[in-house]
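Q: Structure tokens for this one, please.
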Amino acid sequence: MKDWREYRDLCQNIDDFNALVPLLEQMTNEAMLLRHWKQIQSMTGLSFDAEAQQFTLGTVLQPSLLNDKDNVEVLQPIAHLKLEIIILYDELKYVSQDTDNTGWRRKKAKRIFT
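A: Here is the predicted structure, written as tokens:
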């Protein structure tokens, strides 16, 4: 049975899928924005609409994705770092709105008299 072409093809398909699973996990991270999907398209030569209803796992499971796996894997950590920077920026913006010119946080005075 191991000599059958179909068996070897099936084993190759399974190996290819197993190689893509970590990449697919990274690609589903919330940090992956539309611009990152466009970068994936330009790297792999795939053409798809990441926001379309018809966007499925089968859309990205193409041989070119496996060929460019190393390039695509680099995107997720960068996307994650950018998301962290955006979150920190928003937090700093909030804190700066809550401080006076001296850098001390403003504290709302309690109402003693009603």
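A few notes: The radius of gyration is 24 Å. Residues 5-97 form one domain.
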